[in-house]
Amino acid sequence: MHISEGVLVTPVLAGGAVLAAAGLAVGLRRLRPEQTVPSAMVAAVFFLASLVHVPLGPSNVHLTLNGLVGLIVGWRAFPAIFVALSLQAVLFHFGGLTTLGVNTLIMAAPAVLCALLFQALRISPHPRLVDLGAFLTGFCALGLSGLIMAACLALSGEAFLPLAWLVVFGHLPLMLVEGLISLAAVRFLHKVKPEVLACVRSSGTCT
Predict the structure, then answer these.
(1) What angle do the packed helices 127-155 and 10-29 form, to 10 degrees?
(2) Phi and psi of 4, rounded to 5°?
(3) Continuous H helices in the chain
(4) Domain harbouring 129, CATH code
(5) CA-to-CA distance for 157 and 3, rounded, in angstroms?
(6) Which partner from 27, 184, 185, 196 sits 20 to 30 angstroms from 131, CA to CA?
(7) In this structure, is residue 4 part of a structural domain?
(8) If we measure between CA atoms, which residue out of 142, 207, 136, 127 comes closest to residue 173?
């Protein structure tokens, strides 16, 4: 889900950069030394998950696990995803430096929003509601990322409207996969490393 350089108009690039910078500022302000390792872990997961992609016009379709990133580190998803996208742009030419702000916003904003939106389910004492919250976080985060990407493309010219719709519908099958992976990951972490999911149980740590 990387938008290539030379596709978006300047106002969209500038707006994305400003909003991403604001998210980065909040995320870095909330990043404490003891949270560096979990943030680095999810950045690595995001980096690896999005390496395998299928081209879709000037963009591509691939797993992101951004919902899982937001679920584990909350607002710190912005710096984690920014670092991963920066490395991908420099090392593999995925996306680009001029679109780094927009691509960060596309991935990180839904990660944080969905993590906050479904937090009440994830801190429930009922295991089924916890599972539902984990699934919905992964499912909706990717869907919202697709919608934001489609909006960026649509705002860059009417010629991109068909591609914008293709991006939205192209991500529908992956939304289910991302939800199931997030659910499985949360179940696994609850068993072997529950401290990683501290933010699932504590709103202060998660956000």
Answers:
(1) 150
(2) -75, 165
(3) 10-29, 36-49, 66-73, 77-92, 100-117, 119-122, 127-155, 161-170, 172-192, 198-201, 203-206
(4) 1.10.1760.20
(5) 14
(6) 27
(7) no
(8) 142
pLDDT score, position 202 = 45
Return the sign of the alpha-carbon dihedral for residues 42, 43, 46, 47.
negative
CB 98 within 8 A of CB 13: yes
Residue whose token pair is 């997030």: 182
The C-alpha atoms of residue 97 and residue 17 are separated, in whole angstroms, by: 11
Residue range 160-194, pLDDT digits in tens: 888 888 888 878 888 999 999 999 999 998 888 87
Tell me the DSSP string of 128-169: HHHHHHHHHHHHHHHHHHHHHHHHHHHHT-GGGHHHHHHHHH
Into how many domains does the chain fold? 1
Pairwise CA distance, residues 47 & 17, whole Å: 20
HSE value, Cβ hemisphere, 13 Å, CA-based, for 26 = 15
What residues contact 120, with CB distance under 8 A and at least 6 apart? 133
Task: Tell me what pLDDT residue 56 has.
Answer: 60
**Which residue bears the tokens 């742009």?**
89
At residue 124, the 3 state secondary structure works out as coil
Domain assignment of residue 5, yes or no = no
Higher pLDDT, 14 or 34: 14
The rounded distance, in Å, linking the Cα atoms of 25 and 41 is 20
